[in-house]
Amino acid sequence: MSDPHRGLRGHSKLRLYLWIYGTALVFIFISILLIISFGFINNEPDKSCCPAAFSFFSLGLLSLFFYMNMMFLRRKFPINWIMSCSMAVVFGLGTASMLCMQTAGHVILLALEVIVMMGLLLLLGYWLPPKCHPLLYIALTSFILAVIAFFLCKIISDHTDENHDKVAVWIARFVLWTAICPLLLFQSQVINGYWGNESPYLDIPLCSILLLIDFLACYAFLDAVDDIEIAYDRLFRSETVGLMARVGRSGI
């Protein structure tokens, strides 16, 4: 286990986790409700509302940038909580308006997948071997995960030669979790104080907002897997492969 003198201790860690992850789960629950309910108020449920999404995300990112750079706001109760809750709603509305109409079952399944995978990666970041630098641990863990994902993709592709759609689904998921792994490990280490930082008690709302943004990004990516399947299928059609081969030969 990690050196007890590194990071936070015992009951302080538990209390911190309950606040940060509990608040993040509340924000995620609100976002899920917004994603489900937005389809009922959208005049064209089969289409996304790009102007609204752009407006919400722009407002949310500007507010987040302003909030992160104003220390007196981050440490002033209840302004910090009011701003964080407002940003959570804005990011949730931005994601909801960016997606087409979502059924409750589809949203819940994707949300559970994202929450479980994020929880596993955050748990990996909680454990730090003794005398191991946090950055080295992130690099090694991310590399191991990437190697495992590569071999799993190879095995799946070898056994599903006739079903490119299924291969695309798994490859998209492996790419997502391999790419997001270093970020979640780093965030978990910061929460645990492994970078020599102060206890993030006063920045609990900010930590929860960043975890919410991770969740929404992963959810939006997984929701676009169907589009990735279509692109993958078109790429590997025989006529497409033949055309690429002819272009390659003509270029040579």
UniProtKB/TrEMBL annotation:
Q: Coiled-coil annotation: which residues?
A: none
Query: Where would you find the membrane-spanning parts of this chain?
Result: 16-41, 53-73, 79-100, 107-128, 134-153, 174-195, 201-222
> Source organism's superkingdom?
Eukaryota
Q: Does the keyword Ubl conjugation belong to this entry?
A: no
Keywords attached to this Swiss-Prot or TrEMBL record, sorted alphabetically, are: Membrane, Transmembrane, Transmembrane helix
For this entry, the protein name equals GL25615
Encoding gene (name): Dper\GL25615
